[in-house]
Amino acid sequence: MFYWVVKAILSPFLHVIFRPWAEGVENVPKEGPVILAGNHLSFADHFFGALFLPRKVISLGKAEYFTGRGLKGMISRAFFSGVGTVPIDRSGGKASEAALRTGLRILGEGNVLGIYPEGTRSHDGRLYKGKTGVARLALESRAPVIPWAMVSTFEMMPPGRLIPRLGIRPGVRFGKPLDFSRYYGMEEDRLVLRAVTDEIMYALMELSGQEYVDKYAASAKAEAAQAAKEARKAARR
Fold first, then answer.
1. Fewest beta carbons within 10 Å, which of 73, 171, 175, 237?
2. Contacts (Cβ under 8 Å, ≥6 apart) of 37
3. Exposed/middle/buried for residue 70 (C-beta within 10 Å: 0-12, 13-18, 19+)
4. Residue 54: which residues within 8 A CB-CB, separation 6 or more?
5. What is the pLDDT of residues 1-27, one digit of tens each?
6. 128 neighbors 220 (Cβ within 8 angstroms)
7. Which domains are assigned to the chain?
8. Residue 77 CB: number of other CB atoms within 10 A?
9. Radius of gyration of the chain from Cα atoms?
10. What is the DSSP letter of 33?
C-alpha cells in the first residue's frame, strides 16, 4: 500500500516537472512473474524506471539503505520502502545465495522483480559487464526477462549530483521478452550463465544506445577513482 501512496504523490509532480517518456510498456506482462533487467545510470532511475507501469516493481537494494540512524536513516528507509526496495546483504559468498533466494521468492509470488545486472551505477554513463545472478534468476524461475533501459537519467542526475538538472527529459524503454527456454535446467553451467547474461546486456546496449565496456562496473569505478587520486597528487607536486 505504501508503494502506491508514494507513487500517487510523486507521479503528477514528476510528469509536470520532467516530462518523462516511455516506450514498449506493452511488452511487460500484465500478470505473473517478470524480471526487469535494467541498466543503472543514476539515482533518478528509482523514480522513473517504474513510473509508467501499472504493476508494482520490487527491487533488491543494499541493507545499508535500511540501517541508518536518526532523521537521515528514517528518510532513507521510508524512501526505499516507498519505491519497492527489499534489503539484502551484498557482501558476497553466502549473502549472494541469500539474495538469489530472495529474488526467487519474489518471483515465485508472481511479482515483478527489477534488477540491475551491472551491480552498481555507471560512473561515466557507459554500460558495463553484467553479473550472472540475473541469469540464474531467469533460468531457475523461468520468468520472462524484459530488458529495461533508462535513457538520459545520467545526464539529468549523474552520480554525486543531489539536484536533477531541468530541461532533460528522462525516458525508459522496455524491450521484447527474451526467451531462454533453451537453457532451462542448465543454471549450474557457468558458460550458459555467461551467455544468458551477455545476451541481456546486448539487448540493453541496443535499447539504451550506450557504449558497452567488457569490464565490471565496480572495478572500472575503482580504477577511475584511483586514477583521479593519482592525478590530484601529481597536480600538487
1. 237
2. 115, 116, 117, 130, 134, 145, 146, 147, 148, 200, 204
3. exposed
4. 30
5. 778 888 889 999 999 999 999 999 999
6. yes
7. 2-236 (3.40.1130.10)
8. 16
9. 18
10. -
